[in-house]
């Protein structure tokens, strides 16, 4: 209840700080009997890890995961699965200048006031590094959902700063460091990022995620609606300031005669709903978008105060992502997977293991 | 865990269906010793209730609330507070034609597939009528937060369909049925709604809500962040498709040198954060916006299927709001109040009753 | 989290005070599609209700239950089931003399210190009257478990004060007001109670409960073990001071060569375990016993203090059970049923709907 | 919710199996600012660890604890505290003969049926080895409660097999391997244990625990009563079959004129309540007793079945405690401490940080 556990029946409790000895998590509630080892988890961690291009932080972490429990002879036993990732490249001295001041846009100010103490090394607990255990847990959720229902997850960046990235094809996504579903725009994105870095500035991004082959019936209204839980999961990712499901804010200007997705014997005709009606999955693709704010830690000097309330100028040195959105796609996919996993278990608790398979439905893309 | 309880320490468990004998809720965790009676709750219910203008549903409900427990000699005792609202104007026959078909954009399809049974009368459990108990509970949360911290809540409609409503002054909000903070635009809004009704169509809306005088330190990272919980609460309101905190989706195109709110000895200079950093309240105004989709229940015939999968045309008769967003402002305020109340209690569980009062800060408006 | 909700997936949230307008509960998580109406619930309430013999409180309550929600056309819909019981016979003046003093052995002292306020009328929230909603909820759990697994529940009094009640046959239980599984001992029990009443004193009791035809596999170690949850449920009943599972405290003096129940191809040979091993049900009868202390509210004057700390003598007038254990059997059965129901749902969340049927096993009795 | 998290606000999530690479836990909700390092935790682990006398298992484990997170510059930060203990002495081959059979009285049978898979090495997840992380977490709870309220914890063995151990003085407890508060009886206990070992048999024990200087007001009726939570915590310890609070089962034969503890201006006159009334702490000593069954893993051959249902004889080799009760005292103290810690935080969530200090009260011993 202190906020470090995600989920209700498939729970992920994380621990660790950016520059502590280790980070990790305990996953409770995983169904027994699933084949699982580190090779199922490491590839997802590798998609998220730092240092893989010049456009992200140069911190060098192998993010090697160790399974400490919950697996016997290569299969899950139904007991807690603990994942451990040792931190390898902590250069805490890089951050020494910020222990007494509050970076604008950063959690320094609020952690200090809330707890009366904070670990300033690399942002401590508030660091985006803490998304690594979640991605590890998400890999387990993705595997189970795929084996049980054929559910798959995809994501891409659809906007970088003020550059919109038209969707071309999913096949481009793993081919570039931006997770862009578009090949021709890459030189423009790279030039934009190089320029930002040179100016000691940062930018935001918009990320789209999709879950496909989702069973009908997931979601627990009237509060733990599937869309409410997805909003919770995605808004909780570091730096996220907005979440949309389906048509999102475009719904405001739509008429009812347009927005409501008509049904045909072959399935839904459109997907303004984003795959969720009344807080319950429809069997269509679940689609969501998030707005990620520009990184707070930038080299450009900004006005702030120190702990005593005196005005100071703060420049953030150290190694930081100039756009945290660049590595956010696998994180957002993982959070979406954790929500669906949790609700798959919640659904069968109350309604049993009967799941309605959706008819073949035209994809959202 | 079946999704009908909102909150962790200040919990609201609701019950009831649109056309059942009664709706209500049980509020657990209210601090003892607060003066409370129905007169503290009824005015908030009256702000939300139907039938107050020609632009909302004409269902006649007094929404009279009865406190069944938890209050002794006019004060809360720390035991559960049960609120009961009898339904008075159920005309279930109005809905007879939809028992065998699924309305596009409505929860009919998903409730049916999830549970194998659904109460079709007025939408059953999925009806927006179920926001009434939440508004009742919200009134209690608002009262406690105001008495303890001076916290206040406001909200207004900022867009109706494709009409943006420029903010003029909060004083206009209680003076019109749209909750618009603008007097001059009212004729345009009324004409727009009259036209919609005539055409048997519906529209969406955008609602802004603000909490002021929020103590610093509320929010439980790294999952139960205050912004994540607000997103959960607001996305869970019927028909909401998008949630923004602070600058929201505008953050994507902002540079880090612009977005991160600078601090001065007198407080924050701007409020792109919407009053939350690292998932914890900063003491600034908390600002959020939601996108509400157009009402699904419209008179215009639309393509759908029946339970057997055969194509049908569905026209929704009965009494419906042509824009559910019109009555959404007090609901959104209540959900925000419930989140802050819950986190006020969670904060003091771990950190004690010490709360940092923010310095006087230029309001977001 | 304020303690008025019982269960995790099949949750029962109760409200009300002994002398308030009503008591009741909201049950969330009931599987959909089960036939249910008041006639399924009322008989269980009638087994518990006061005024049915001269050996219990003479308060006259019909305990008529009304289902407010969650049922449509005679079947559960999967949405919350609210039960309402109006209080009918509140004579609060009977209790006027205890508003300023603390009865020895009663919750007066602790409620006052915890909350700074208490409702003294009939014990307020701490009254055993609040077991009525639980019995109502238990009736629903019993029905579902019986229809799904054939599970049944029984209970009897095995000791009244210092009189041990030898077990003869279950058929005697509904035939006497003591829930004794023994007919010949009844005159002795009645004389004992009459004597107590005459002396203004009270006594304790020991109650045994049994669940039969329990599926194998219920229980969630290593903390939410089935026996731990049963202990929680039974110790939480008013006036309970001890709980045993299976051989209970007799286990201490047993050798390992005696205690551990041997297995044969036909099932377990004995049942010292009480049907639970490692916190998980074995398929044997689940057996538990509870110790109930003597009623605190007695006519005999006792030493105590008032709110100001001054010594006083307290005699409790009003109507009270001279042995709260007499009506405790249906309550204990209900709590046991609620635990099994909750764990049936929890089991299938993680492990699916596959349940192992136990082989025919010699009953515990 | 899968049962591996203990507590509501001060949560302990454990992981690991007896013969896996490591065991440990994540503690969430610890108040910030408390001085903490491994030296505060290790001594409690050492009280519980195996191999310290000939009367317990000879498995050699240093149980060295490493704090992985949640502490900065020697103080808790309010973020999760992860404790890691590497397993050092796993001789899994010792257990090879039990992978296909079910030991009488052991969790083998139920884990296998529940999950369809089980880790048989040393009992896997069901091993009493998993109490080590709980004792680590309990050390943190004890420290905070002592610093905040002066609360202390004690425990002793009061019966070994059929030998009752008269209480003499707490000072004896740390001086003998049995945690007996009696020096003269030690030769008898040692002879009893030596005899058991020689015969390949095992025995049960009774353990008493006491918490002193408990603030008034802890406990959250009407379900999360302090006594109910203690019963849950203690019954959940491996091999426990019974729990008593205060007078326990003796209450049954007590009259109301005896049982109810009278109050005087100087405090309570007696403590039959065991420090809890109405589920809320009175400020008196909290006293509880548990019954621990004899160890299931014994060398004597017993009848059982294999996975295929065929009859077999099972002798358990490997290293086992002939009386698991011998090491249970620090575990029971820890569980009690975790319950009080959790309820201290829950109390101040609803009622604020005001705690009533009890008057000086004659101790229970």
UniProtKB/TrEMBL annotation, chains A, B, C, D:
Pathways per UniProt: Metabolic intermediate biosynthesis; chorismate biosynthesis; chorismate from D-erythrose 4-phosphate and phosphoenolpyruvate: step 7/7
Cofactor(s), by name: FMNH2
Binding site for NADP(+): 48, 54
Catalyzed reactions: 5-O-(1-carboxyvinyl)-3-phosphoshikimate = chorismate + phosphate
HAMAP family reported for this sequence: Chorismate_synth
UniProt cross-references to PANTHER family, sorted A to Z: CHORISMATE SYNTHASE
Known role: This reaction introduces a second double bond into the aromatic ring system.
Subunit structure: Homotetramer.
Protein name: Chorismate synthase
Higher taxonomy: Bacteria, Pseudomonadati, Pseudomonadota, Betaproteobacteria, Burkholderiales
């Amino acid at each position: 209840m202190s906020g470090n556990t995600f989920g209700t029946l498939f729970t992920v409790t994380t621990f660790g700080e950016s520059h502590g000895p280790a980070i990790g998590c305990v996953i409770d509630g995983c169904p027994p009997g699933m084949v699982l080892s580190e090779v199922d988890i490491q590839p997802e961690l590798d998609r998220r890890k730092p240092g893989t291009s010049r456009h992200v932080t140069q911190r060098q972490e192998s993010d090697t995961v160790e399974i400490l429990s919950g697996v016997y002879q290569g299969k899950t036993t139904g007991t807690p699965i603990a994942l451990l990732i040792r931190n390898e490249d902590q250069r805490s001295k890089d951050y020494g200048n910020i222990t007494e001041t509050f970076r604008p846009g950063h959690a320094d100010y609020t952690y200090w006031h809330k707890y009366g103490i904070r670990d300033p090394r690399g942002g401590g607990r508030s660091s985006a590094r803490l998304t690594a255990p979640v991605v590890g847990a998400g890999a387990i959720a993705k595997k189970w959902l795929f084996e049980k229902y054929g559910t798959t997850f995809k994501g891409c960046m659809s906007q970088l700063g003020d550059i919109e990235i038209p969707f071309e094809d999913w096949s481009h996504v793993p081919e570039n460091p931006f997770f862009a579903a578009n090949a021709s725009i890459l030189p423009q994105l790279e030039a934009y990022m190089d320029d930002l870095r040179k100016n000691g500035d940062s930018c935001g991004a918009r990320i789209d995620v999709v879950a496909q082959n989702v069973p009908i019936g997931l979601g627990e209204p009237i509060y733990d609606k599937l869309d409410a839980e997805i909003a919770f999961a995605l808004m909780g990712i570091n730096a996220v300031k907005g979440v949309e499901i389906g048509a999102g804010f475009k719904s405001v200007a739509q008429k009812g005669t347009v927005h409501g997705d008509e049904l045909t014997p072959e399935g839904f005709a459109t997907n303004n709903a984003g795959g969720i009606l009344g807080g319950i999955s429809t069997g269509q693709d679940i689609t969501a978008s998030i707005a990620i704010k520009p990184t707070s830690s930038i080299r450009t000097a900004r006005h702030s105060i120190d702990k005593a309330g005196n005005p100071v100028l703060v420049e953030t040195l150290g190694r930081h992502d100039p756009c945290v959105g660049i590595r956010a796609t696998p994180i957002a996919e993982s959070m979406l997977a954790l929500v669906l996993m949790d609700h798959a278990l919640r659904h069968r608790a109350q309604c049993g293991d009967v799941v309605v398979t959706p008819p073949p439905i035209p994809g959202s893309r």
